[in-house]
Please model this.
Amino acid sequence: MASTPSPRWAAFPVGLGIMLRNARIDAGLSCRALARAVDRSHAWVRDLEAGARPPSTTMAGRVSEVLNLDPWTDAILRSVAVDDVQLSARQATR
Model:
């Protein structure tokens, strides 16, 4: 399933959303359970898995920890993460 990124964000690497979704399922978590674990909405998790929204560097770390991501997936997730300050600035201009 190809994602259609927002024009504000760079496109996710192909397959990252699927890897995150599979890791969530392997961890036995629903979308809502992951959202609660990282203190975000289930829509945020859905957008992350769809490649529509990058995580902040802080949230990438939280997601990686909760899902116990393998080093490869963790590295890819962190590579698309947006610096917390930049993300806050972008969201403030919406």
In short: DSSP finds six helices and no strands in the chain.
